[in-house]
């Protein structure tokens, strides 16, 4: 899949998650529990309108910023301070391949971020569907653990790619 297609996929995932989150946020109570203690009991609240703003920020702005920081910023700085062995990877003969890898890899980070934020939204929505709100901490911890495993995979793949100079 080319990097333009990957960016389109990322944008589609962001748009779908934002649409779905806004669509079902109307079912939330006027006062939404958004923070829970270790036992899953609600201990922090916000208005439904503020929650909508927060969820859109974390579904649209944060993943987009991550994609830009990982794919766009290195293009401007030729990877200095961001990419191991940047001089090698941003040499004229490898620059296009490097930029393509960065875009493709950054979109995976963005999609994983959208997935965890949307999963958190679903957990919050389910918790607020009962009274008093209680978070299913086992599901929440499982979701975060899966995300962290994906993040470790992402970082290892990133570092391995940029440290193997001799194979290119």
Description:
The protein is mainly alpha-helical and 168 residues long. The chain has one domain. Helices cover 72% and strands 7% of the residues. It contains 5 helices and 2 strands, in the order H-E-E-H-H-H-H. A two-stranded antiparallel sheet has the order 1-2. Helix 1 runs parallel beside helix 4, helix 2 packs antiparallel against helix 4 and helix 4 runs antiparallel to helix 5. The chain is elongated, with a radius of gyration of 19 Å. The two termini are 20 Å apart. The model has no long low-confidence stretch (mean pLDDT 92).
Brief description of this entry?
The chain has helices at 3-25, 48-77, 86-89, 92-128, 137-163, and strands spanning 31-36, 42-47. The protein has 168 residues and is mostly helical.
Helix content: over 70%
| Helix/strand order, N-terminal first | HEEHHHH
Which structural class is indicated by helix and strand composition?
mainly alpha
**What would you call the shape?**
elongated
Strand line-up in the sheet with most strands: 1-2
- Beta-strand portion reads 5-15%
Using the CA coordinates, give the radius of gyration. 19 Å
User: How many helical stretches?
Assistant: 5
What would you call the quaternary organization?
single chain
Largest sheet: 2 strands, antiparallel
